[in-house]
Structures are given as structure tokens and as C-alpha cells.
Amino acid sequence: MMYGDVKRKVQIEPLPESLALQVIDIYHVYGLEHQNKVVALKGVSFDINKSEILGIIGPSGSGKSTLLLALGGMLKPIAGQIFYSDGTDITKLPEEDQFEFRRHNIGYIFQEQNLIPYLTIEKNIEMPMKLVNTPFAKRKQRVKELMETLGIWHRRAHTPKRISGGEQQRVAIARALANNPSLIFADEPTGNVDIETSTQILELFNDLKEETETSFLICSHDPIVGDFSDRTLEIRDGILIGEHLEGIDLTNLDSSRFLVLDNQNRITLPENALKQLQGTLLYTWDIIEEGLILKPFGKTDEKRERKIKNCTTCGVEIPKGSYSCPRCGAKLTRVVR
Ligand SMILES: Nc1ncnc2c1ncn2[C@@H]1O[C@H](COP(=O)(O)OP(=O)(O)OP(=O)(O)O)[C@@H](O)[C@H]1O
Ligand SMILES: [Mg+2]
Predict the structure, then answer these.
(1) CA angle 53, 246, 43 (to 5 degrees)
(2) How far apart are CA 215 and CA 14, in angstroms?
(3) How many CB atoms lie within 10 A of CB 164?
(4) How far is the CA of 70 from the centre of ligand 2 (A)?
(5) Residue 218 has what pLDDT?
(6) Cβ count within 10 A of residue 337
(7) Superfamily of segment(s) 19-259
(8) Which protein residue's CA is at the shortest distance from atom 6 of ligand 1?
(9) What would the pLDDT profile of 268-301 be if each residue is shown by its tens digit?
(10) Helix (H, G, I), strand (E, B) or coil at 99
(11) What is the rounded distance in angstroms from the CA atom of residue 12 to the CA atom of residue 96?
(12) Pairing status of strand 19-30 against strand 79-84
């Protein structure tokens, strides 16, 4: 998919009927004012369809949580646009409107569950409904329904620290679903639960997707999430490098990956391809029916290789023999002619 020709929108107009979210060219840098800044997102663009479970996979530190926080309006990216189906660009909403917008439209399951420690779990789940003034009886009914579905009704009177990690996770999920949002962002939702509970959670997501057109964006390393996802995006060093369709095998990503062109028409090659290309800086290319062939151009030039000593993104020194920055993960640039 290519987004290079997407024009920046100013006027609010709804997205095409089939889309739940459109993300255009998101950049984020942590610690801008400090020396040791981290470039966490480097131009991320993609769409989420209505009624879709979209997975995001990538190594630790690749930018998954940062991306999710930006999509939910909890972090303001330094550049880029994030359009919801009604045309709202959440990056441009004033902070006070963002709270309101989020309460009505988004369910968010944090990597750290963020439950309110002094409230019972029943009250934790009820809270988002109180915030949108749902009547008492309706709130009680919805809480019971969610807690029963997630198997935590018997724990309703406990506070979060008195239940297990897996139960806390289910409370966080119930809370995210409480207001029937059309979009759910979930950061490692099956991180703390056993395989049986993971399956139940994902089956619930799947039912909601089919019955209510809800869309899900799920960051995870859990193979079971891959089984339930309609599509999976692969993120590496803050860039989307690949897309996979249903039936992804997390232990063999190379078998199902489609490479993604970023908004500047660059491709980031997967790790195994980079390893094979190590030492050679110039390539020629041929287009064939199945795709593109890269061929090393000339011999390895040891001197040229060592000329680049510092990362162009964050400035840290890159050790000998390494082709990516140990701090921010940025890759050394290779030239293709
Ligand atoms: N508040 C912060 N201040 C500075 N750097 C941060 C901050 N939060 C994250 N980072 C850095 O930004 C990069 C992306 O982090 P992020 O948390 O988005 O990764 P992730 O893919 O969610 O990782 P994990 O799988 O471990 O949860 C990392 O290099 C991380 O160290
Ligand atoms: Mg994370």
C-alpha cells in the first residue's frame, strides 16, 4: 500500500464508509529538548477498516505502545494526522475535547492496566459509564453482563491488588468495552493470562467485531492474536516494514510478509535480508515479474563502511560490525542505484 499521494486534509469530512481510522505520517520523538532523544516513530501510515482485528507486532522498543498512545490521543505526536471515521483529527483536538472524544469513541487497554487501586473492580468497570452519564440501572446491568462474560463476577467486591494479574487484565478489558466504543486499542491484552483466557478474550473481540462493527488494534507477541487478526502490521524501529494477512506464523514471518513502502517511498528490509547484504554498500536492481532483485555492486569497501561512526538519528556511536544504532535502532543507510 502506498500513501505518498495522500494529501494533507484541513477540512473535516468523514472518512470513506469502510474505514474506522486513517493514520497519516506519524512521527514522534521523546526528549526533544535533551541530548539523548529517542525517535520512536518515523513516518507511520496505515488504515484500520471497520469490523477488523488489526494486529501489530514488533520487537521490544519498536514503537508499538507509542503508536497506540498517539492513536488514542494520549500522546501528541510531533507530526502527522490521525483521522477518526467522522473526520476528526485527534492530534488537532484541544486537550479538554480529547477526553470527551475518547470516552465516547475509544476503548483503551493499557500495557500496564491502570486500574484505580482504591475502587472495587465493579466500580472500576462502572467508571467510564459514569463519566458519560449512563443511568444507574443500565450501568449495573452492563457491569454484570461484562463481568460474567469475562469470568470475574465473583471478584466484584475486591480491589485490584487483591486479584491476580490475569483477573486484573480482564477488568481492564471489561472497562474498555463498557461504553461500546467503535474502536478498541489493546496493548498486549493477553500478556498476563493463560491460553484458555486468551482464547476467550479474543473470541469475545471476534464476536464484537462481527455483531457491532467494532474494530480492534492489538499489539502483541502472542501467537494466538495472530490467529484471530484479519491483518497484521510489522513495526521495526518506528517504521512499518511489512504487512501480513490471516494465518500468520510468528516464528516464520518471512513466509507471509508483504513489504511496505513508506510515505517517502523507502523500503526497510527485514533483518535476515540485511544480514545477507552486510558489508556491501551499493546495489543495482532489476524488476522481474515476481518483484525486485537487488544485486551487490562492486566489492565490499571496508574503509567506506567504517566512515560512518555515529548514528545520524540520535548521535550515539555505532560499534564496529554493527549496522544499526544500539540506542534508537536506526539503520545505517544503504544506497541503491
Ligand atoms: N517516556 C519515554 N521517554 C523516552 N523514551 C521513551 C519513552 N517511552 C518510550 N520510549 C522509547 O521509545 C521507543 C519505543 O518505545 P515503546 O514503548 O513504544 O516500544 P514498544 O514497542 O511498546 O516496546 P515493548 O514491546 O517493550 O512494550 C523505545 O526506544 C523506548 O525506550
Ligand atoms: Mg509497549
Answers:
(1) 65
(2) 17
(3) 11
(4) 13
(5) 95
(6) 7
(7) P-loop containing nucleotide triphosphate hydrolases (3.40.50.300)
(8) 30
(9) 777 777 777 765 667 788 888 877 888 877 665 5
(10) helix
(11) 19
(12) antiparallel
pTM exceeds cut of 0.70: yes
Burial (CB count <10 Å: 0-12, 13-18, 19+), residue 295? exposed
Question: Any idea which residue has 472497562 for its cell?
Answer: 175
In this prediction, residue 5 carries a pLDDT of 44
Cα(223) to ligand 1 centroid in Å equals 22
Ligand 2 mean position, distance from CA 154 (Å): 30
Is the minimum distance from the CB of 64 to ligand 1 under 6 angstroms?
A: yes
Residue keyed to cell 494486529: 55
H or E element, residue 204: helix 195-212
Q: Which residues surround ligand 2, an ion (CB under 5 A)?
A: 64-65, 111
Residue 176: burial class (beta carbons within 10 Å; 0-12, 13-18, 19+): buried
* Cβ atoms within 10 Å of 297's Cβ, excluding its own: 14
Ranges in the chain annotated CATH 3.40.50.300: 19-259
Mutate which of 27, 30, 219 for ligand 1 pocket (most atoms within 8 A of beta carbon): 30
* Ligand 2 centroid – CA 202 distance (Å): 19
Q: Is the backbone of residue 274 left (phi > 0), alpha (psi -120 to 50) or beta?
A: alpha
Average pLDDT over residues 245-269: 79
CB 318 within 8 A of CB 325: yes
Give nearest CA residue, ligand 1 atom 19. 61
